[in-house]
Protein backbone atom coordinates (compact mmCIF):
# COMPACT_ATOMS: atom_id res chain seq x y z
CA UNK A 1 0.00 0.00 0.00
CA UNK A 2 1.58 3.25 -0.99
CA UNK A 3 2.17 5.64 1.83
CA UNK A 4 1.32 9.33 1.58
CA UNK A 5 4.29 11.64 1.38
CA UNK A 6 5.40 13.06 4.66
CA UNK A 7 4.14 16.57 5.49
CA UNK A 8 6.64 19.34 4.95
CA UNK A 9 7.74 21.12 8.03
CA UNK A 10 7.52 24.92 7.93
CA UNK A 11 10.80 26.66 7.25
CA UNK A 12 11.75 29.73 9.20
CA UNK A 13 14.33 32.05 7.64
CA UNK A 14 15.91 34.64 9.87
CA UNK A 15 16.86 37.89 8.17
CA UNK A 16 20.40 38.95 8.83
CA UNK A 17 19.44 42.65 8.47
CA UNK A 18 18.46 44.64 11.55
CA UNK A 19 16.23 47.05 9.55
CA UNK A 20 12.54 47.01 10.41
CA UNK A 21 10.30 45.24 7.95
CA UNK A 22 9.21 47.33 4.99
CA UNK A 23 5.64 48.45 4.61
CA UNK A 24 3.82 49.73 1.51
CA UNK A 25 3.88 53.49 1.08
CA UNK A 26 0.43 55.08 1.11
CA UNK A 27 0.32 58.69 -0.03
CA UNK A 28 -2.21 60.90 1.67
CA UNK A 29 -3.15 64.31 0.25
CA UNK A 30 -3.13 67.15 2.73
CA UNK A 31 -6.61 68.17 3.71
CA UNK A 32 -5.76 71.88 3.37
CA UNK A 33 -4.77 71.54 -0.29
CA UNK A 34 -7.83 71.69 -2.56
CA UNK A 35 -8.04 69.70 -5.73
CA UNK A 36 -7.51 71.20 -9.17
CA UNK A 37 -11.25 71.20 -9.89
CA UNK A 38 -11.97 72.97 -6.60
CA UNK A 39 -9.36 75.62 -7.31
CA UNK A 40 -10.82 76.28 -10.77
CA UNK A 41 -14.35 76.38 -9.40
CA UNK A 42 -13.47 78.91 -6.69
CA UNK A 43 -11.46 81.17 -9.00
CA UNK A 44 -13.07 84.52 -9.85
CA UNK A 45 -12.22 86.69 -12.83
CA UNK A 46 -12.46 90.46 -12.60
CA UNK A 47 -11.97 92.99 -15.37
CA UNK A 48 -10.38 96.29 -14.35
CA UNK A 49 -9.32 99.35 -16.29
CA UNK A 50 -5.99 101.18 -16.01
CA UNK A 51 -7.20 102.93 -12.84
CA UNK A 52 -8.28 99.70 -11.15
CA UNK A 53 -12.00 100.46 -11.54
CA UNK A 54 -14.56 97.82 -12.43
CA UNK A 55 -15.32 97.38 -16.11
CA UNK A 56 -18.34 95.19 -15.48
CA UNK A 57 -21.65 96.92 -14.86
CA UNK A 58 -25.04 95.28 -14.55
CA UNK A 59 -27.82 97.22 -16.26
CA UNK A 60 -31.44 96.19 -15.86
CA UNK A 61 -33.68 97.36 -18.70
CA UNK A 62 -37.37 97.99 -18.22
CA UNK A 63 -39.98 96.56 -20.52
CA UNK A 64 -40.01 98.52 -23.75
CA UNK A 65 -36.68 100.19 -23.02
CA UNK A 66 -34.07 99.69 -25.74
CA UNK A 67 -30.36 99.65 -24.93
CA UNK A 68 -28.24 102.39 -26.45
CA UNK A 69 -25.28 101.02 -28.37
CA UNK A 70 -22.28 103.38 -28.75
CA UNK A 71 -21.83 104.48 -32.38
CA UNK A 72 -18.31 103.01 -32.67
CA UNK A 73 -19.60 99.62 -31.45
CA UNK A 74 -22.68 99.77 -33.68
CA UNK A 75 -20.53 100.45 -36.75
CA UNK A 76 -18.49 97.32 -36.01
CA UNK A 77 -21.66 95.26 -35.70
CA UNK A 78 -22.85 96.54 -39.08
CA UNK A 79 -19.45 95.77 -40.55
CA UNK A 80 -19.64 92.18 -39.32
CA UNK A 81 -23.19 91.83 -40.68
CA UNK A 82 -22.15 93.02 -44.13
CA UNK A 83 -19.20 90.65 -44.18
CA UNK A 84 -21.40 87.68 -43.24
CA UNK A 85 -23.98 88.54 -45.90
CA UNK A 86 -21.35 88.46 -48.64
CA UNK A 87 -21.77 92.08 -49.68
CA UNK A 88 -18.83 94.33 -50.38
CA UNK A 89 -17.71 95.86 -47.11
CA UNK A 90 -17.78 99.65 -46.81
CA UNK A 91 -16.35 101.46 -43.82
CA UNK A 92 -17.35 104.94 -42.74
CA UNK A 93 -14.20 106.44 -41.25
CA UNK A 94 -14.44 109.70 -39.27
CA UNK A 95 -11.68 112.30 -39.27
CA UNK A 96 -11.05 115.84 -38.07
CA UNK A 97 -10.46 118.59 -40.60
CA UNK A 98 -9.03 121.99 -39.55
CA UNK A 99 -11.11 125.07 -40.32
CA UNK A 100 -7.86 127.06 -40.73
CA UNK A 101 -4.62 126.62 -42.71
CA UNK A 102 -2.88 123.49 -41.42
CA UNK A 103 0.63 124.89 -41.95
CA UNK A 104 0.50 128.42 -40.61
CA UNK A 105 4.28 128.55 -40.30
CA UNK A 106 4.59 128.66 -44.08
CA UNK A 107 2.00 131.42 -44.51
CA UNK A 108 3.19 134.93 -45.44
CA UNK A 109 3.60 137.22 -42.45
CA UNK A 110 4.03 134.38 -39.93
CA UNK A 111 7.17 135.86 -38.35
CA UNK A 112 5.51 139.26 -38.00
CA UNK A 113 2.54 137.57 -36.34
CA UNK A 114 4.88 135.72 -33.97
CA UNK A 115 6.70 138.91 -33.03
CA UNK A 116 3.44 140.74 -32.45
CA UNK A 117 1.81 138.21 -30.09
CA UNK A 118 4.93 136.31 -28.83
CA UNK A 119 3.28 132.91 -29.48
CA UNK A 120 1.72 131.43 -32.60
CA UNK A 121 0.43 128.08 -33.81
CA UNK A 122 2.85 126.64 -36.36
CA UNK A 123 1.35 123.45 -37.82
CA UNK A 124 -1.41 120.88 -37.18
CA UNK A 125 -1.56 117.27 -38.37
CA UNK A 126 -4.66 115.08 -37.95
CA UNK A 127 -4.43 111.28 -37.89
CA UNK A 128 -6.15 108.20 -36.45
CA UNK A 129 -3.98 108.48 -33.32
CA UNK A 130 -5.09 112.01 -32.53
CA UNK A 131 -4.14 115.57 -33.37
CA UNK A 132 -0.49 116.59 -33.34
CA UNK A 133 0.67 120.18 -33.65
CA UNK A 134 3.62 122.51 -33.16
CA UNK A 135 3.79 125.97 -31.64
CA UNK A 136 6.47 128.66 -31.94
CA UNK A 137 7.23 131.08 -29.12
CA UNK A 138 9.79 133.85 -28.76
CA UNK A 139 12.75 132.77 -26.66
CA UNK A 140 12.38 135.38 -23.94
CA UNK A 141 13.83 133.25 -21.11
CA UNK A 142 15.04 129.76 -20.39
CA UNK A 143 12.12 128.80 -18.12
CA UNK A 144 8.92 128.72 -20.10
CA UNK A 145 5.70 126.71 -20.37
CA UNK A 146 3.35 126.09 -23.29
CA UNK A 147 -0.08 124.53 -22.73
CA UNK A 148 -3.08 123.81 -24.96
CA UNK A 149 -6.59 124.43 -23.67
CA UNK A 150 -9.15 122.42 -25.69
CA UNK A 151 -12.82 121.44 -25.63
CA UNK A 152 -15.17 119.08 -27.50
CA UNK A 153 -18.33 120.56 -25.96
CA UNK A 154 -18.28 124.24 -26.96
CA UNK A 155 -16.43 125.00 -23.69
CA UNK A 156 -19.08 123.52 -21.42
CA UNK A 157 -16.16 121.37 -20.33
CA UNK A 158 -12.50 121.60 -21.23
CA UNK A 159 -9.13 119.99 -20.67
CA UNK A 160 -5.52 121.07 -20.78
CA UNK A 161 -2.38 119.38 -22.10
CA UNK A 162 1.22 120.48 -21.85
CA UNK A 163 3.45 120.86 -24.90
CA UNK A 164 7.06 119.68 -24.90
CA UNK A 165 10.11 121.51 -26.22
CA UNK A 166 11.46 120.27 -29.58
CA UNK A 167 14.08 122.67 -30.93
CA UNK A 168 15.30 126.25 -31.14
CA UNK A 169 15.15 128.14 -34.44
CA UNK A 170 17.96 130.63 -35.08
CA UNK A 171 17.14 133.34 -37.60
CA UNK A 172 19.19 136.10 -39.15
CA UNK A 173 18.54 139.62 -37.96
CA UNK A 174 16.79 140.36 -41.21
CA UNK A 175 14.48 137.33 -40.86
CA UNK A 176 13.42 137.81 -37.26
CA UNK A 177 14.22 136.90 -33.64
CA UNK A 178 15.05 133.49 -32.24
CA UNK A 179 12.14 131.21 -31.34
CA UNK A 180 11.52 127.86 -29.66
CA UNK A 181 9.36 125.10 -31.13
CA UNK A 182 7.01 123.10 -28.89
CA UNK A 183 5.00 120.03 -29.86
CA UNK A 184 1.62 118.94 -28.45
CA UNK A 185 -0.83 116.09 -28.91
CA UNK A 186 -4.60 116.17 -28.40
CA UNK A 187 -6.13 112.73 -27.77
CA UNK A 188 -9.42 112.02 -29.54
CA UNK A 189 -11.66 109.39 -27.84
CA UNK A 190 -13.52 107.08 -30.28
CA UNK A 191 -16.96 108.10 -28.98
CA UNK A 192 -16.17 111.73 -29.88
CA UNK A 193 -15.75 110.93 -33.58
CA UNK A 194 -19.23 111.79 -34.81
CA UNK A 195 -20.06 113.92 -37.84
CA UNK A 196 -20.71 117.49 -36.75
CA UNK A 197 -18.60 117.36 -33.59
CA UNK A 198 -16.23 120.30 -33.30
CA UNK A 199 -12.94 120.59 -31.46
CA UNK A 200 -11.71 124.01 -30.30
CA UNK A 201 -8.37 124.89 -28.75
CA UNK A 202 -6.15 127.84 -27.90
CA UNK A 203 -2.45 128.12 -27.05
CA UNK A 204 -1.12 129.63 -23.81
CA UNK A 205 2.53 130.67 -23.30
CA UNK A 206 3.83 131.50 -19.81
CA UNK A 207 7.26 133.09 -19.36
CA UNK A 208 8.86 135.54 -16.88
CA UNK A 209 5.60 135.79 -14.92
CA UNK A 210 3.61 136.89 -17.98
CA UNK A 211 0.97 135.03 -19.99
CA UNK A 212 0.48 135.21 -23.74
CA UNK A 213 -2.31 133.62 -25.80
CA UNK A 214 -2.88 132.61 -29.39
CA UNK A 215 -6.60 132.01 -29.88
CA UNK A 216 -6.79 132.68 -33.62
CA UNK A 217 -7.67 136.35 -33.17
CA UNK A 218 -10.45 135.56 -30.69
CA UNK A 219 -12.08 132.83 -32.78
CA UNK A 220 -10.17 129.84 -31.35
CA UNK A 221 -8.71 127.15 -33.57
CA UNK A 222 -11.53 124.86 -34.68
CA UNK A 223 -11.57 121.41 -36.26
CA UNK A 224 -14.78 119.77 -37.46
CA UNK A 225 -15.45 116.04 -37.69
CA UNK A 226 -16.26 114.57 -41.12
CA UNK A 227 -16.44 111.04 -42.50
CA UNK A 228 -15.51 109.32 -45.74
CA UNK A 229 -16.46 105.92 -47.15
CA UNK A 230 -13.79 103.30 -47.74
CA UNK A 231 -14.50 100.09 -49.68
CA UNK A 232 -12.50 97.15 -48.35
CA UNK A 233 -11.08 94.81 -51.04
CA UNK A 234 -12.15 91.17 -50.86
CA UNK A 235 -8.61 89.95 -50.29
CA UNK A 236 -8.37 92.10 -47.14
CA UNK A 237 -11.62 91.00 -45.50
CA UNK A 238 -10.19 87.73 -44.17
CA UNK A 239 -7.49 89.62 -42.26
CA UNK A 240 -10.01 91.76 -40.39
CA UNK A 241 -11.43 91.01 -36.97
CA UNK A 242 -15.03 89.74 -37.06
CA UNK A 243 -17.47 90.84 -34.35
CA UNK A 244 -20.36 88.49 -33.73
Automatic annotation (TrEMBL):
PANTHER family: PROTEIN PHOSPHATASE 1 REGULATORY SUBUNIT (PTHR12307), PROTEIN PHOSPHATASE 1 REGULATORY SUBUNIT 3D (PTHR12307:SF4). Residues 111-224 form the CBM21 domain. Pfam families: CBM_21 (PF03370). GO terms for biological process: regulation of glycogen biosynthetic process. It comes from Hucho hucho. This is Protein phosphatase 1 regulatory subunit 3D. GO terms for cellular component: protein phosphatase type 1 complex. InterPro entries: CBM21_dom (IPR005036), CBM21_dom_sf (IPR038175), PP1_regulatory_subunit_3 (IPR050782). One of its GO terms (molecular function) is protein phosphatase 1 binding. Residues 1-23 are annotated as: Disordered.
